[in-house]
């Protein structure tokens, strides 16, 4: 495989996680690091063996070297992703962009309007977590999907440079920043699009923990939420019908997202439960196990419907996904990897990404597992879930659209793209 020259734009926690995997491949070379914070680039440099990369503090300096870059990894704070995609997207390179791709409606509109040349892969690595991927493999077993529940009960957001992830205008707020992963999974699992949603949230419970202090005008990020979702078949898909009725009944797929950011020590940090007309599949993390249940079949042992079904009328299978080879056939072809922050999923993501780049070099189309449109739709679901918060009677309950933290030059860039329908993108 030919050499791939890489630039890392943003050398914080996620940039460093990507670096830790890149170093395992002999054909990948980190040529450039870019981050305004010296402590971040110092840590990143300490992780790289061999020839040290060139370090830049200013993105403009890195952009001048675009001709020497095959793959750009965007791992900067959330509000910077859209302007960076617009600046770099005019070039014929590959971009791996961390989620979310946008944090506001205006940024979403600019991405939709832009005519980008770059080959973009959005880093939605939750798709590749072994237990979640096994759940995806087992979906045909449960029949027509009617319910999908995703729960995350976890610790509060970690500390980052200047605490940007606690600032609504920089992060997009929790239902975009954190939950775009889960909205992406809802679309992937159901193979449908969200039709509507309604939310209940807590905001400001972690005020002291996050250090807002005496900032009376601060808008604290969301700390917990329930989001109920309705799904509808995608265009050209025939709506499924479990039962034929002469009258209209409610049979659409429904979903529920539960998030709690003050649940340290929970037995399960993530749970995904999918229920179809033939059965149910459940994935649990960090246990990394998947459970498949099959419902009683017509003519089976459950004869007397006046009594609960006997145990022999339904089945249970348990899949231990802690062994990567049980989920991915190519596990042995991946260099010895650590689990990272996402249960080894970033390692899987890099394997797929490298394959996609090589396919393109061989003259085939570049086919990302998560394209820019997928990234945009996940953000739109997060924005919609905040627009439809219904516990508005509480003080501060009214939602106002997120305005991304921005500079005058960034606003000019967004306005230029929106005004020109994306045909011309300036640096």
Give a verbal description of the structure.
This protein has about 425 residues and is of the alpha/beta class. It is globular. Helices cover about 30% and strands about 20% of the residues. It has 13 helices and 14 strands. The longest helix is centred in the C-terminal third of the chain and has 17 residues, at about 345-360. The chain has an 8-stranded mixed beta sheet with strand order 8-9-10-7-11-12-13-14. Strands 3-2-1-4-5-6 form a 6-stranded parallel beta sheet, sandwiched between helices.
What distance lies between the first and last C-alpha atoms, to the nearest angstrom? 33 Å
Please give the count of helices: 13
The tally of beta strands, per DSSP, is 14
Structural class: alpha/beta
Largest sheet: 8 strands, mixed
Shape: globular
Order of helices and strands: EHEHEHEHEHEHEHHHEHEEEEEEHHH
Content of β-strand: 15-25%
Poorly predicted residue ranges: none
Mean pLDDT: 92
Task: Output the radius of gyration.
Answer: 23 Å
Condensed summary:
This protein has 13 helices and 14 strands. The chain has 427 residues and is α/β, with parallel strands linked by helices.
What labels would you give this structure?
single chain, alpha/beta, 427 residues, 28% helix, 22% strand, 14 strands
């Amino acid at each position: 495989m030919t050499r791939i020259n890489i630039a890392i734009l943003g050398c914080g926690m996620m940039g460093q996680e990507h670096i830790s995997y890149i170093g395992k491949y002999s054909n990948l070379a980190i040529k450039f690091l870019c981050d305004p914070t010296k402590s971040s680039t110092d840590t990143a440099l300490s992780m790289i063996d061999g020839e040290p990369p060139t370090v830049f503090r200013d993105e403009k300096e890195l952009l001048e070297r675009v001709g020497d870059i095959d793959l750009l990894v965007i791992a900067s704070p959330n509000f910077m992703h859209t302007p960076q995609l617009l600046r770099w997207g005019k070039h014929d390179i590959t971009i791996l962009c961390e989620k979310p791709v946008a944090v506001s409606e205006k940024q979403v509109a600019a991405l939709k309007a832009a005519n980008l040349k770059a080959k973009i892969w959005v880093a939605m690595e939750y798709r590749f977590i072994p237990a979640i991927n096994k759940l995806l493999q087992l979906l045909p077993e449960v029949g027509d999907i009617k319910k999908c529940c995703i729960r995350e009960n976890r610790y509060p957001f970690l500390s980052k440079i200047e605490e940007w992830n606690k600032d609504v205008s920089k992060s997009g707020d929790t239902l975009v920043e954190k939950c775009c992963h889960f909205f992406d999974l809802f679309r992937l699992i159901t193979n449908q699009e969200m039709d509507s949603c309604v939310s209940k949230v807590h905001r400001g419970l972690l005020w002291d923990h996050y250090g807002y202090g005496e900032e009376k005008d601060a808008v604290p990020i969301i700390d917990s939420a329930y989001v109920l979702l309705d799904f509808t078949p995608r265009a050209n898909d025939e709506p499924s019908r479990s039962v034929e009725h002469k009258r209209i009944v409610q049979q659409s797929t429904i979903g529920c997202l539960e998030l709690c950011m003050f649940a340290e020590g929970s037995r399960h940090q993530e749970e995904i439960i999918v229920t179809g007309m033939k059965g149910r599949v459940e994935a649990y993390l960090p246990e990394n196990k998947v459970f498949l249940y099959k419902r009683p079949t017509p003519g089976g042992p459950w004869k007397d419907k006046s009594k609960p079904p006997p145990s022999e009328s339904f089945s249970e299978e348990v899949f231990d996904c802690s062994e990567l080879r049980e989920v991915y056939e190519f596990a042995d072809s991946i260099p010895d990897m650590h689990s990272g922050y996402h249960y080894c999923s970033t390692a899987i993501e890099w394997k797929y990404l490298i394959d996609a780049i090589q396919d393109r070099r061989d003259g085939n189309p570049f086919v990302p597992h998560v394209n820019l449109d997928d990234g945009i739709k996940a953000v739109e679901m997060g924005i919609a879930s905040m627009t439809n918060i219904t516990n508005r009677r509480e003080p501060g309950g009214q939602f106002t659209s997120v305005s991304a933290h921005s500079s005058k030059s960034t606003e000019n860039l967004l306005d230029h793209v929106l005004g020109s329908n994306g045909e011309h993108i300036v640096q």
